[in-house]
Amino acid sequence: MSSYMHSGLADRCIEAFHTLERDPRCGPPNADSYNILIALFGRSLLVDHMEATLLSLDASGHPRTIGTYNAIIAGYLTAWMWEKMESVFDEMVSGHVAPDKTTYLLMLRGYAHAGMIYKMELAYERARQHVGQVDMVHIRAMICAYCKFKHVDRIQKIEELLQKLGPDDYRPWLAVLLIRAYAQEGLVERMEQWIAEALERNTIVTTVQVMRSIITSYFQCDAVDKLAHFIRQAEEAGWKLCRSLYHCKMVMYGKQHRLPEMHGVLDEMEFFRFDRTKKTFWIMYKAYVSSGRMAEANTILCMMGKHGFGFPRGGPGGTHMFHFPTN
């Protein structure tokens, strides 16, 4: 049964269990047999079947073992049913079945996936007390949780956990999460270190959300040259491109009155097949207005009218400030 379960052969595992039930030479299934079936259904996200098998175990007269509780907790963890996961753990402790190494690590991983940071940290301390050194799989799960869910001192805690990882523990998905977390915190230097690491290892960013976090970080510290360098790297590496990359660069060039370079961005957009939108013209219009070059600004107005976009908000000579464009 165990071999079939680990090989993903669910039907054969269930068939073996029923054969065991019918064979008088073997006697009725024991708790271990039920535990394997519970684990099988949990892995397959068949929660109803898992719970029904647990009831069958109770009806058989066999007591629940540590293996039973671990299999049920793992099943609820896989199904992201956090409340039931906690409930089983509490029932286990109150029923005087002592958690083991597997139990503590399961709860740690569950809380990490759920984003329950305080409970995750408590589970981590418990795991360290009972397990000793926590393995890299669970360390990465904790770093992932800190990256995804904002928390007090999360960067400090990420840095502490990163110290436990070795060169062979690099994972592309974790690198991308770290890039975004450092970008969200405005830590440009650390963000760039992880960007460089990702590029060196041929990791590819495929989501617009991560790219926007990066360019927002550069925008907030007014680092247009760093942004331009990053965009070139992203283009060459095949990272996810979006119009916001180029609009942001245009806005930042406009703020610094570097109008020829702002115009050059239009060629880049055309090369990567990003059409000019109303916001594209609006950015150019505001750049010319802020530079006092009203003739060029009026030309942009004519171009906007030609494309059917109308006047930018505030009309000719409008005075509102630049902001980071998101599309």
UniProtKB/TrEMBL annotation:
PPR repeats: 65-99
UniProt GO MF annotations: mRNA binding
Keywords: Repeat, Transit peptide
Pfam family, one: PPR_2
Domain of life: Eukaryota
Statement: the UniProt record of this protein carries the keyword Repeat: yes
InterPro entries, alphabetized: PPR5-like, PPR_rpt, TPR-like_helical_dom_sf
Family of the protein in this entry: Belongs to the PPR family. P subfamily.
Name under which the protein is recorded: Pentacotripeptide-repeat region of PRORP domain-containing protein
